[in-house]
Amino acid sequence: MDTITLNDIGRARQNITPHIYSTPLLRCSWLEEQIGAPVYGKLENLQRRGSFKIRGAANGLLQLDPAQRAKGVVTASAGNHGLGLAQVAQLLGCPVTVFVSISTSPLKINKLRQLGARLIQEGADYDASEALAQAHAKTKHPPFIHAFDQPEVIAGQGTIGLELLDEMTPLNSPMCVVVPIGGGGLISGIAIAIKSKSPKSKIIGVQSEASPAMVRALEAGKVVDTPIGETVADGLAGRLVGENMLRLVQKYCAEVVLVKEKNICFAMQEFYFRQGWRVEGAAAVGAAAILENKVQARGMPVVLIVSGGNVAEESFYRFIEANTQSG
User: Fold this and answer.
1) Which active-site residues does the annotation give?
2) Mean per-residue pLDDT for 291-307?
3) Structural domain for 117, as ranges
4) If you average pLDDT over residues 186-194, what whole number do you get?
5) 63 and 46, same structural domain?
6) Sequence-ordered strand ranges (E) for the chain
7) Which of 174, 215, 287, 324 could form a disulfide with 267 if both were Cys (CB 3.0 to 4.6 A apart)?
8) Residues 291-314, buried b or exposed e (16+ Cβ, 10 A)?
């Protein structure tokens, strides 16, 4: 992978601005007593199509010339990347084929169909679907837009870091940014942006105990195939992280921590009842890390990347009810 620079992320910001929202940064006072520092949520759950993924998808798609886009693109997705890509592709007149696994959320599948994506539901998990999508791209020759392991996509996700630098500048201090990790593209882009401008800032990644692929890769010093358990944070579930993502996390991130499923559900509940935000499990792992005392901010303001809100209402309440009963 080519080196991704702050300039790349700046260009991505220019490219994708017409297609995204600059999302709010709001205080999460209910977490502040736990950590002893100001806590903010960067609300990508309010982003177009309900997730940060549209940033990287848009930047990847916009690198193609009109003739390439007219022939269509292919991707694999746990749901949110496909939604972001399909949204921008629809505006640009670009056909999209999205491979999803058989375990993908029905809500996300329905939304993909509404956007006109050609949907192929095969594979037991994201990694299996990606292998099928890659094989399709090699055979049929449409450009493949990766969900996380592509420089243009990482640069697009890094635009969140630029927004945070603008929004947190008045505090005139380093920050601690807590980021969900699936494949690693989001944390890589944010870390490059933040550490390039604010080297004393701290970047912490979070995964569920049920899907610890980045943690296991860091322990081994290489990408390892990691079993996936049942998880409410389905957007982060994957057996493998990208080799490039591993190296970027090793370079830029202070640590990656694991959180319990019950605490992810509790964080989802608290975000809803205390702040009125219905967020998906992947978006609640940062709050769960604070609740488990796994974020040491050293007095810095803390920013949680609230990565998405694409969770079906019935599933959301089922998670909360299960958490209450296990209580």
Assistant:
1) 53, 307
2) 95
3) 53-140
4) 97
5) no
6) 25-27, 39-43, 73-76, 96-100, 118-121, 176-180, 202-208, 255-259, 302-306
7) 287
8) bbebbebeebbbbbbbbbbbbeee
- Let me know if residue 145 belongs to a domain: no
Rg (CA), the chain: 18
* Amino acid in position 58: A
Backbone angles phi, psi at 293, to 5 degrees: 60, 35
26 and 161 together in one domain: yes
* DSSP 3-state of 77: coil
90-122 core/surface letters (b: 16 or more CB in 10 A; e: else):
eeeebbbbbbbbebbbebbbebbeebebebbee
Cβ(231)–Cβ(281) below 8 Å: yes
225/289 Cα distance (integer angstroms): 24
Token match 């790349």: residue?
Answer: 8
pLDDT tens for 277-288 read 999 999 999 999
Element (H, E) at 291: helix 285-291
Cβ atoms of residues 130 and 100 within 8 Å: no
What does the DSSP 8-state code read for residue 103? T
Cβ atoms of 234 and 261 within 8 Å: the answer is no
State both tokens at 283: 């978006």
pLDDT tens, 193-211?
Answer: 999 999 999 999 999 999 9
pTM of the predicted protein model: 0.95
Number of domains in the chain: 2
Instruction: List the alpha helices (DSSP H) in 122-236.
Output: 126-140, 151-168, 185-197, 213-220
